[in-house]
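The protein record passed on below.

***
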Amino acid sequence: MRNRRSTASMLVAAALWAVCSTAPARAQQGGPPPAVLVQPAEMKPIADQSEFIGRVAAVDKVELRARVKGFLGPRKFADGDQVKKDQVLFTIEPETYQAAVDQKKAQRDAARAALANAEMQLKRAAELLRSNTGTQVTYDQRLSEQLQAKAQVEDADAQLRDAELQLSYTEIKSPIDGRVGRAAFSPGNLVSPDSGVLATVVSEHPIRVLFPVTQRELLEAKRTSGTDPAGIVVRLRLADGSVYQEKGKIDFIDVTVDAKTDGQIVRATFDNKNGVLTDGQTVRVIIEGEKVPTSVAVPQAAIAQDQSGAYLFVVNDKNVVEQKRVRTGVARDGLVAITSGLQAGERVIVQGQQRVRPGMTVNPSVAPPAASKK
C-alpha cells in the first residue's frame, strides 16, 4: 500500500515538473518576436592609424647667463612675456665697466699722440739724412720709435674693444623671438658667469615634436605611404584626450638607429600660434595616411568574439536572424572596418544580440545615432 502511494506521489511530482518546465517554452513560442535595434552596414572612410609617445621640443631654446660679474639692475620683463630678438631682459650695473672703457679710450688717445710725435720725428730724421746733415743711426732710431708707437696704438685699440665688449655684456638681451620663462634671480643680487641660468627663452611658433619609431614600423610606413613623408598626416593627442587642431608635417628622420631600442627619432613640425604646446610636454603622436581608404563599417558594439573568431548578427529581408563570420580591420571612433564577410546595406543588430540566435524571427527597428555608438 505504501509503495502504491509513493509511486503515485512520484508521478504527480513528475507531472508538475513537466508542466512547469514546458510552460516558459510554450509562452516563448507563442509570444511576440523579440525587439532588436539594427543599423545598415555603410561604406565609410576609416583611417589606418599608428600612435607613438612623443615629446614637444622648441625650435630654439636659449639659456640666458651672465658673462660679467656685477649686481643685477631692474628687470626688463615679466615672467612668461613674449620677447623680441635683441630685447634687453636683464641689466648688470654698468658703472665699473663704463669707467674701464673711458680709461682705455684715454690710453688709446695717448698712444695715438705718441704715434703722431714719432712719425714727425721720423720725417725730420729722413729729411736730415737726405741733406747729409743727419746720420743713418738717428734715422733708424726714429723709425724704431715710430713702429713701437704704432704697436702701442694697436694694443690700445684692442684693449678698448675688450672694455667695450665687457660693457655690452652688462645688458643681457634675448637672441631670439620667443617666450621668456621665470627669472632665477631678483634685482640686487650679485651674479657672475658661475651663477647659472638667469632665465630661459624658447621659440614656440612653430614647434617640434620628437618621437621614436621602430624599424618595423618605419618600413611599414614606407610601404604604405612611400618614401616621401609629405603623404603622411601627423596629429597630436593631448593629455586630456583631445586631438590638437593643427596638423603636422614630418621634416626629419634621424640618420642613426638606437642600438638599444632599434628605433629612429622622427621629427614633426606644428604651428603653435595659440601656445597650446609647451617645450618638454608629453603627447601621443597619431600617424595616418593622407588618403583615407573606404570600407564597410559597423558599430563596434555589434562585434562579438568566440573561439572561432569575430562574428555578428544580421537580419535578412524576412526578419530572420543570421550569424555572419567576419574579419575586422581598423577600429576608429566606435566603428570597425569589416574586410570580409559582410556587404554594405546588410542590417546589423547593434542592440539586443543577447536575446537572439540564428534562425529566430525578430522585430527590428532602426537604431538612432546615439544608440548605434554604444
Observations:
- The CA atoms of residues 71 and 189 lie 5 Å apart.
- The longest helix spans residues 95-130.
- Residues 1-28 have pLDDT under 50 and may be disordered.
